[in-house]
Amino acid sequence: MKTFSQFMSEVYDKDVMGSSQIRKSGEGGRIGRERKKSEPEKRRMKAAGGGKMVPAKSYKDRKDIGTQRQASDRVQQPTKERGSADVKQSYADKVKAERKKAAQARIAARKSGSQVKQTTTSSKDAEKQASKMLTKKTTKTASPNYKPAKASGYSRDERRKLKRAGDRLIRDTQKGIKKPASHYDPKL
Description:
The chain is mainly α. It has helices spanning 4-11, 14-19, 71-74, 85-112, 123-134, 156-175, and strands at residues 45-49, 52-55. The longest helix has 28 residues, at 85-112.
């Protein structure tokens, strides 16, 4: 009979465990673990109609579970070879076109008699601007008294019917048309 410490030393081999890259794969061949919430954990509800709410259905699994996505699918690949003459030429053309555009704008400004716009940002100003952009933005905190609106329980179609019936009633009262209340009942 082995003691617990003997059993653990046999099972947990430090050399193997330290260098292993094996991870437990999830169900259905997925690479990571499944992070889907269980039925009692689910909070999302949807309107069933007639003022009733039911838990929303869970999403279907993706077809590509268990397959690694290639980098070529995710990232834009270069179309030309790095450092090729075509790339250098296209970049030079782009810079040249930008300069030409700026020169034409200056000429047009002089002809019209308006002020010639020039960039007067020094490196210090640019640095200040950059540091200001990089500073952490403070997020707006929600009011502690905020209470979310209660769900009506009506489905989208039922809400639309109610809204349109109300719009009809308003339109008819503005025109002076008198109809019985049953005319505006959306008959849910």
